[in-house]
Amino acid sequence: MKRHLLYLITLVILGSCGLPDNNPIVSTAQSAGQDDDIDGKVIKSQALRANGSNQVSTAYIKQQSYSTSKLELPDGYSKYPDKEKHSENQIRKSEKNFYTIDCGKYSEFKKLSDRSEDCIRKYNEFYGQSSEKMMKWNPKTNGIAGEGNWLVVSVSKNQSVIWQDRTTSLLWADIYKENSSWQEASSENGVCDQYNNNNPHGIPSSQISWRLPTRGDFLQADINGARAVLRNTENSFWTSSYIANNQAWSITQSTGVLEKTPITETKAIRCVGVSLQ
Asked: Residue 58: is its pLDDT beyond 80?
């Protein structure tokens, strides 16, 4: 009886979140021209990771755990790696070297959506339809294993690009400082506080709050496709995660490799931000 009641409650909750009736697979056809799976309405599950256009939603996995019906596997799902389909060479990287037009800068924009729309408009005027690949990174066409959507929200030409990971909503800045100790990076009035007050995009701290990413921030971003999207990933970056004995975690973003590092060593700094508006 309790199990049945819990199942009914779960269905009600999932229904209120907009889970499609009898339609657990998020397909390209359904979401073409829409951002349903970008803004958290449908979040792809990492339990059944597949490349291609079809992904199983987290809500569906939760629903099936309380159901006796058979779990429907997504097209492209495989228990075993395919050297061609699942090779990292199949991931299309973002157009990292073509951000030559300022957009989404300064305090005139009150919302992130206004910044991204400004970027899309300006790059579309200059580059035409190819600008879509520069402003957005879509895992359905670019990824191999359940990565997330990414969107450019601001460009300081030839200098810095801010991307938003639409799965976590975190904003990822370009490399800000190449050599910094952990103490300089993580302390009050440290590097990311400096970025808060003096970033090349001219975005005030009242609109976006920047900080040093945690170990978990970097790892989640890696799952979501950061290696293919962000620039300067070959650097080794400080995380804010302290271990013990004057050591903290650093990470090489291009490989996802973590290291226990003495906090007196110098590493690069990349800040993450949260929109306050």
From this structure: no
Closest C-alpha to 156, from 190, 115, 126? 115
C-alpha 47, offset from chain centre: 18
Tokens (6 digits) for 23:
């339609």
Per-residue pLDDT, 143: 79
Final residue in a domain of this structure, among 23, 51, 86: 86
Inside any domain, residue 228: yes
Residues 6+ positions from 17 with CB-CB distance below 8 Å:
41, 59
How do residues 87-145 score in pLDDT, each as one tens digit? 777 777 777 667 889 999 998 898 999 999 999 999 999 888 777 778 999 887 787 77
Kindly state whether residue 94 falls inside one of the protein's structural domains: no
Phi, psi of 155 (to 5 degrees): -135, 130
Q: Which domain holds residue 68?
A: 2-86
For residue 33, which of 136, 119, 121 has the smallest C-alpha distance? 136
Asked if residue 213 and residue 141 are part of one domain, the reply reads: yes
> Is 21 in contact with 59 (CB distance < 8 Å)?
no
pTM of the full structure: 0.80
pLDDT the model gives residue 27:
37
* 36 in the same domain as 152: no
pLDDT at 235 over 80: yes
Q: How many domains does the chain have?
A: 2
CATH number at residue 165: 3.10.100.10
- Does residue 163 sit within a domain? yes
Domain assignment present for residue 24? The answer is: yes
Which of 69, 86, 103 is at the close of a domain? 86
From residue 67, alpha-carbon distances to 3, 24, 216, 230, 266 in Å are: 10, 13, 32, 40, 52
Q: Each residue of 43-56: pLDDT tens digit?
A: 666 666 666 556 66
Cβ-based neighbours of 264, under 8 Å, separated by 6 or more: 181, 182, 246
